[in-house]
Amino acid sequence: MIKIFYTKFNPEDMTAILDQWLSILPFQLQKINQSYKNKEDQVRNLSGKLLLAEALKNIGYGSIALDTIQYNQFKKPYLSKDFDFSISHSGRYVFCVIGKNLKLGLDIEEIKPINFSEITNIMSNSEWKQINEASNPLRQFFTLWTLKEAAIKAEGTGFFTDLNTIKVKGNTIHIGDNIWFSNKLVFDENYSGHLVTSNLERGYEMIFKDLTIANYDKKK
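The structure assignment produced for this chain is given below.
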C-alpha cells in the first residue's frame, strides 16, 4: 500500500523544530538546510527529510541514509529502484509519499489568489474555459495545477515538461504516450492536493506526524 506521511507546523514552533531535529540530519543535508535564508523554508526542508526517513523505516528501508539521495537528469530525487517517493510542501503543510513497485508523484498547494493573466501558457484553451466556467475558478485552477505538477513529478521530468501539453481527462493525466492515474487528497479545505501513480492504485494510507518536541519521538 502507498503511505503518505504529512505534518503541519505553526510559526511559533519553527525555532523549536529546527533546534530539536536539524542535528539528526547528515552533515551535508544540514548545510543545505541552512543555506535557506527563510526560516519557513528551513522547516519545510527539514520536515520533508524527517518524513522521508519515517517513510523509509515504515516500508523496511530504514538503513538507507538520506545523504545517498541521487538525482536523474531532470533533478528528480531517488534512492532505490525498488520504491519511489515524492515530497511536496505549501503553506504550513509538508507531505511525503512512498510506494513500492510503481512510479508516483504528489503535489499540494495552498489555495491563494493568483493573477490568471500572468500564467496563461500553463493551461490549454479548453482548460481555461473549464476554469472560468467553474463555480469556484480559483479552486478549479489549483485542482488542475496539482494534477499536472504531481504528474510531472511522477514522470520524472519536472518542469522540463511543458504544462500546457499535459492533458487531464477525468482521473487520468496524459503526458505523451504515458498515462497516469490520480487520487484526490482531502486534508484541508484551503488546500488542493493530488497523488498520481503509474498503476491504477486506489489504496493509500495517510499518516499524520507531529514534529513538535512533545509529540514526536526521534528514536523511533
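Interim note for the steering committee: The first helix runs from residue 14 to 21. The chain is about 30% helix and 25% strand.
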